[in-house]
User: Fold this.
Amino acid sequence: MREDTAQADEGVAAAEQPAKRVRADVRRNTDALLTAAAEVFRTSGVDAPVRQITAKAGVGAGTLYRHFPQRSDLIAAVFRHEVDACAEAAPDLAERHTPADALGEWLQRFALFLATKRGLSAALHSGDPSYDSLPCYFDQRLMPVLTALVDDAVKAGEIRGDVSPDDLLTATRNLTLSADEDEDGHTPRMIGVLVDGLRHGARRPEAGR
Assistant:
């Protein structure tokens, strides 16, 4: 009986290993597709040919359609993927930089997302119900992250305290050019100027507090 049980356990373990490899392959393919689609949408818009996306991702068209049967499925997934990348970048930036520099680096990353989002703009405002949940997803994922970065920089006395996260989102939107317009690096330079302005009037915390 024990031998039978051991053999059964070995069989389960052997079955689990290929399943894990398959899941890892699926995840890699999905990530590659979403990264490639974001780049293509940023430069060519959401109506870019599928072959342009699959060639950049290094997968076949069948893989794309298996994961994203409709173009709207791919567009919504790219939006969420880019939002997640922005949100997940914050902890690493906070660990590697001073609070004000972490905020500045994050705003630069957010500007890249906005460049992609402008490529998605026509689709996102088309009235397709597939996109109805995306504004809420944006707020839930990014606002807490940005609020934490701003609060940390204010508490450290590295930026002024009279600018809200909403102010910074709006300012970054206004400064961000699309990929084809921003050939000379206008957006990164202007965001640098914005962060320098935030430093003006900062109040260092008093010693002992």
Q: What stands out?
A: The two ends are 69 Å apart (CA to CA).
